[in-house]
Design the sequence.
C-alpha cells in the first residue's frame, strides 16, 4: 500500500523538478543584474521572457531579486549592486509589479500590483497576463484580470486581436471605456485599416448609447431616492393639512429629530450591544417612529388643537416649535454633522450599465419609502382608523355627527404624519448630512409636494413627490440646485393657475 | 384705538424732534437703533396691512424688504465709487473689472428709488395676480410666499449673480456726497426713517378708515359674499397687496444704509416669519399694534444680542406660543385683561 504512494510521490517530485530546467538561469540573471545598465535591462528581459515557463519557486526568487535590486540591498559578487539607471528603475518597477501579481501570496498585494500596472497596460507582456489569469483563484481579481487583459489587447500589434478586444471593451460601457476607445481614433492603425476603423466606430457608438442609458437611469434613480424622502415628509403634511387645514412648519424638524434619534440608537447599541450595532438602521425604525409620533401628538394636544379655527396662527405656532427644536438640538448636540456608521448593507452597489450603479444606500431609502407608502395606504384604506380619517377630511361636522371622535382622529393622524417624517429622517441618514438645520432643505420642497398633489388622495402626494424629486435631479446637473428649486417653484405656481387645489382636490364647492 | 394711534404717532414725532433738537442727549448707538427700529416698524405696518386687514398672511415679506435693501446698497456702492473711487469688495473677490450691465444707472438716487418701486410693483403684482386670480389663499398662499423668499435666498447666495453672493454688500462710505461715518448723517437717516414711518402710518390710517378699507376688511371676513355682491375682490386684494409690498421695500431702502450691510440672510424664511411674529405680538389689525410689536420685539432683541444671544430663539418661540395661545390679538388683549388701567389699549374692532 505504502509503496505505490511513495512511488507516485517520487514521480510527482520528478515532474515538478523537471519544469524549471527550461526556465530561469538564475546565475545568468544575477550576473546581468550586477552588471552595467544595459546588462541590468537584459536581466529584466530574461525574467519576463521566462515567466511563462518559470516554476512558482523561480517566480518567488525573481521577485526577491528585483525587490532587492530596487532597494539596493542586492549582494553582488563584487560587493554592492550598482545604482539602477532611471530607465531601468521604471522597467524594474513594472517587473516587480508583474511578479507580485504572479507570486504574492496575499490577494490584496496582487490587486494593488494589478492596479499599478493598469497605468500602462500595453507594456505588460501577454505571457504574464495569461499565466496570472490561469493561476488566479480570487474571483474579484479574476474579473479584474480579464478586464485588464482586454485593455492590454487594445494596444496589441495584432489587429485581429485588437478588433476583438475593442468589441469586448464595448460590451461593458463606462466612461473609461469611452476614453479608451476615443484614444484609439488617434492610433495610426485607425487611419490605415478600414476594417479596424469600422470596428472602433461601431464600438464608440455602442458605448455612447450605453453611457446615455446609464445616465438616464442614474438620474431617474437619484430622483426616485430624493422623491422617497420628499414623499415620506410630505405625506404627513398632506394628511394633516387635509384633515385640519393646518400646515406644520415644524415638519422639517421632525425629519431632523428622526435622524438624531437614529444616531442615538446607533450610539446606544455601541454602548450596550456592540454586536447588534451594525443593524442600527432596522432596529431604530420602531423607536424613531414612536418618538417622533409621540412628539407630534404632544404638539397637537398642546398647541395645534387650539388653533383649528385660526390656521394662519397655527403657522406661527408650529414655526415657533421648529425654532425651539432647532435651537434645542443645537445646544444639546452642537452644530456639526453627525457621524453615522455605514453598515455593509448600505455600502456599495451593483453596476448596471454605463456609469449607473444601483447603490444600496439609495435603494434603502426607496425601499423604505415604498414600505411606508404601502403601510400608509393600507392604514388609510383598509382600517377603521383610515375610514375615520377619510370621513373627517371630507366633512368634519358630518363625521362628528355619525359618532367619529374627530379630535382623537386628528391627534392620531398628527402622530402618524410626524412619525413618517421621523422615518424619513432615518431613511436619509445614510444619504445626506445630518445637522440641526437639515430640516429646511426638505421642508420647502415638501410644501410644494402638498400644494401640487392636493390633499384628497395619497396618489396625489406620490405623483407630486416623484415629479418634484425628478425635476430637481433633472435640472440640477444643467443649471445647478438653485435653478432646480426656482423652476420647481415657478412650475408649481403656474400649475396652481390650472388646478388651484392640487392634482387631487376634494370634490365640492370652491371656497 | 384712535387714542392709541395718536399716542404712537406723538411718541414717534417726539423722538424725531429729540434727535433733531438735542442730539447730545442720545448716544450715536441709540440714534442708529431708533432709525433701524423705525424701518422695522414700517415693515411691520406693511405686513399688518395685508395680514391684519386683508387676512392674507405673507411669510415672504422679506423678499420686498430685500428688494429695497439691495437696490439702495447698489446705489450706495456706485455712488461711493463715483465719489471716493472705492471699488466694491465683491468685484474684487470675483475678479471683475466692470459692473454687470444691470448695475448701470445706479449712481442716480432717483433712479434707485424709482427702480425700487417699479421692481416691487412688478414682482408683487405678478405674483399677487396669479395667486389671487386662481384664488389661492389662506395657508396655501402663506407657504408659497415662504417658498418664494426661500428660493430668492438660494439665488442670492450664489456668487455669480452680481449681487455680492453670500457675503452680500457692505462698505458703504458715502451717501448724498457726505461721509456715512458723520453723526449728522446717521441722525438724518434716523429722522428720515421716523418721518417716513409717520407718513406711512397716516396714509394707511386714511386707507383703512376709508370705504376701500372697509371693503378690504369685508373681503377678509367673507370674500364669497363680497364677490356675490358684485365687488371685484381680485383688484381689491391685488391693490392692498402691492401697496404692502411697496411699503416693505421702502422699509428695506431705509434699513440698509443704517445697518451698513445687506446679505442673503435677510431673505431667510425665518426673518420673514419673524415679521409676522412682531405683528402678532403687537396686535393684528391695528396699525399702532404693529409699530409697538416691532419696536418691542426688536428692542428686546437688540438688548439681548449684546448679553445672551443664544437665549433669543428660546425667548422668541416662547413669546410666540404665549401670544398665539393666550393673546390672539397680541398686546392689545392686555386692554381686555385690565380694563381700568389699560383702557386706552382696547381695540376698536375684534379681529
Sequence:
Amino acid at each position: 500500500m505504502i509503496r505505490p504512494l511513495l512511488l507516485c510521490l517520487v514521480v510527482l517530485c520528478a515532474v515538478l523538478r523537471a519544469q524549471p530546467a527550461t526556465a530561469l538561469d538564475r546565475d545568468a540573471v544575477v550576473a546581468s543584474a550586477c552588471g552595467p545598465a544595459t546588462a541590468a535591462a537584459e536581466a529584466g528581459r530574461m525574467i519576463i521572457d521566462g515567466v511563462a515557463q518559470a516554476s512558482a519557486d523561480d517566480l518567488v526568487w525573481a521577485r526577491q531579486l528585483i525587490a532587492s535590486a530596487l532597494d539596493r540591498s542586492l549582494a553582488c559578487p563584487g560587493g554592492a549592486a550598482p545604482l539602477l539607471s532611471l530607465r531601468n528603475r521604471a522597467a524594474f518597477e513594472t517587473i516587480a509589479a508583474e511578479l507580485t501579481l504572479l507570486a504574492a501570496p496575499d490577494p490584496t498585494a496582487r490587486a494593488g500590483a494589478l492596479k499599478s500596472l493598469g497605468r500602462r497596460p500595453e507594456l505588460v507582456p501577454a505571457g504574464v497576463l495569461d499565466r496570472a489569469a490561469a493561476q488566479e483563484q480570487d474571483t474579484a481579481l479574476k474579473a479584474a484580470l480579464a478586464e485588464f487583459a482586454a485593455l492590454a489587447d487594445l494596444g496589441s500589434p495584432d489587429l485581429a486581436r485588437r478588433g476583438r478586444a475593442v468589441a469586448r471593451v464595448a460590451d461593458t460601457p463606462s466612461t473609461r471605456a469611452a476614453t479608451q476607445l476615443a484614444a484609439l481614433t488617434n492610433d495610426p492603425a485607425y487611419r490605415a485599416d478600414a476594417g479596424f476603423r469600422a470596428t472602433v466606430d461601431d464600438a464608440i457608438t455602442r458605448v455612447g448609447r450605453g453611457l446615455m442609458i446609464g445616465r438616464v437611469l442614474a438620474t431617474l434613480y437619484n430622483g426616485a431616492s430624493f422623491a422617497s424622502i420628499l414623499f415620506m415628509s410630505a405625506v404627513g403634511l398632506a394628511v394633516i393639512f387635509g384633515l385640519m387645514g393646518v400646515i406644520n412648519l415644524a415638519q422639517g424638524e421632525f425629519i431632523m429629530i428622526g435622524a438624531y434619534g437614529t444616531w442615538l440608537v446607533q450610539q446606544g447599541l455601541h454602548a450596550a450591544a456592540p454586536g447588534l450595532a451594525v443593524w442600527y438602521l432596522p432596529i431604530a425604525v420602531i423607536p424613531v417612529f414612536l418618538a417622533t409620533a409621540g412628539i407630534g401628538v404632544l404638539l397637537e394636544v398642546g398647541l395645534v388643537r387650539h388653533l383649528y379655527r385660526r390656521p394662519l396662527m397655527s403657522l406661527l405656532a408650529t414655526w415657533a416649535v421648529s425654532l425651539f427644536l432647532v435651537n434645542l438640538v443645537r445646544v444639546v448636540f452642537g452644530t456639526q454633522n453627525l457621524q453615522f456608521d455605514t453598515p455593509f448593507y448600505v455600502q456599495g452597489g451593483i453596476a448596471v450599465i454605463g456609469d449607473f450603479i444601483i447603490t444600496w444606500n439609495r435603494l434603502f431609502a426607496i425601499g423604505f419609502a415604498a414600505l411606508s407608502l404601502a403601510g400608509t395606504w393600507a392604514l388609510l384604506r383598509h382600517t377603521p382608523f383610515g375610514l375615520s380619517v377619510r370621513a373627517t377630511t371630507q366633512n368634519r361636522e358630518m363625521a362628528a355627527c355619525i359618532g367619529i371622535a374627530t379630535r382623537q382622529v386628528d391627534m392620531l393622524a398628527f402622530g402618524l404624519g410626524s412619525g413618517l417624517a421621523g422615518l424619513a429622517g432615518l431613511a436619509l441618514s445614510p444619504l445626506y448630512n445630518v445637522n440641526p438645520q437639515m430640516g429646511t432643505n426638505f421642508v420647502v420642497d415638501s410644501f410644494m409636494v402638498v400644494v401640487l398633489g392636493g390633499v384628497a388622495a395619497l396618489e396625489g402626494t406620490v405623483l407630486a413627490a416623484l415629479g418634484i424629486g425628478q425635476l430637481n435631479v433633472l435640472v440640477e446637473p444643467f443649471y445647478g440646485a438653485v435653478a432646480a428649486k426656482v423652476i420647481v417653484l415657478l412650475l408649481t405656481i403656474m400649475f396652481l393657475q390650472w388646478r388651484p387645489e392640487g392634482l387631487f382636490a376634494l370634490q365640492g364647492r370652491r371656497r | 384705538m384712535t387714542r392709541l394711534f395718536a399716542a404712537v404717532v406723538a411718541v414717534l414725532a417726539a423722538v424725531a424732534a429729540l434727535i433733531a433738537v438735542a442730539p447730545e442727549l442720545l448716544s450715536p448707538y441709540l440714534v442708529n437703533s431708533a432709525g433701524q427700529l423705525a424701518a422695522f416698524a414700517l415693515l411691520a405696518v406693511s405686513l399688518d396691512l395685508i395680514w391684519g386687514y386683508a387676512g392674507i398672511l405673507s411669510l415672504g415679506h422679506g423678499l420686498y424688504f430685500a428688494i429695497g435693501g439691495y437696490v439702495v446698497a447698489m446705489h450706495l456702492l456706485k455712488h461711493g465709487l463715483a465719489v471716493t473711487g472705492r471699488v466694491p469688495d465683491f468685484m474684487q473677490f470675483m475678479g471683475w473689472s466692470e459692473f454687470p450691465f444691470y448695475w448701470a444707472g445706479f449712481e442716480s438716487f432717483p433712479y434707485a428709488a424709482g427702480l425700487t418701486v417699479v421692481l416691487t410693483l412688478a414682482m408683487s403684482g405678478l405674483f399677487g395676480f396669479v395667486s389671487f386670480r386662481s384664488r389661492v389663499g389662506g395657508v396655501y398662499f402663506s407657504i408659497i410666499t415662504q417658498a418664494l423668499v426661500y428660493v430668492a435666498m438660494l439665488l442670492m447666495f450664489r456668487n455669480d449673480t452680481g449681487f455680492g453672493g453670500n457675503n452680500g454688500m457692505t462698505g458703504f462710505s458715502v451717501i448724498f456726497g457726505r461721509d456715512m461715518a458723520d453723526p449728522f448723517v446717521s441722525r438724518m437717516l434716523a429722522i428720515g426713517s421716523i418721518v417716513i414711518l409717520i407718513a406711512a402710518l397716516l396714509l394707511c390710517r386714511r386707507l383703512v378708515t376709508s370705504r376701500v378699507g372697509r371693503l378690504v376688511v369685508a373681503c377678509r371676513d367673507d370674500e364669497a359674499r363680497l364677490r356675490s355682491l358684485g365687488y371685484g375682490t381680485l383688484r381689491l386684494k391685488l391693490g392692498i397687496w402691492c401697496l404692502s409690498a411697496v411699503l416693505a421695500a421702502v422699509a428695506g431702502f431705509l434699513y440698509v444704509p443704517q445697518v451698513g450691510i445687506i446679505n442673503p440672510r435677510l431673505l431667510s424664511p425665518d426673518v420673514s416669519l419673524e415679521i409676522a411674529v412682531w405683528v402678532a405680538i403687537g396686535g393684528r389689525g391695528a396699525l399702532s399694534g404693529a409699530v409697538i410689536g416691532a419696536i418691542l420685539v426688536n428692542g428686546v432683541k437688540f438688548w439681548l444680542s449684546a448679553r445672551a444671544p443664544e437665549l433669543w430663539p428660546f425667548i422668541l418661540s416662547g413669546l410666540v406660543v404665549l401670544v398665539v395661545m393666550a393673546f390672539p390679538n397680541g398686546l392689545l388683549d392686555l386692554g381686555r385683561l385690565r380694563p381700568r388701567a389699560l383702557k386706552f389699549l382696547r381695540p376698536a374692532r375684534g379681529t
Remarks:
- Chain B has 14 helices and four strands.
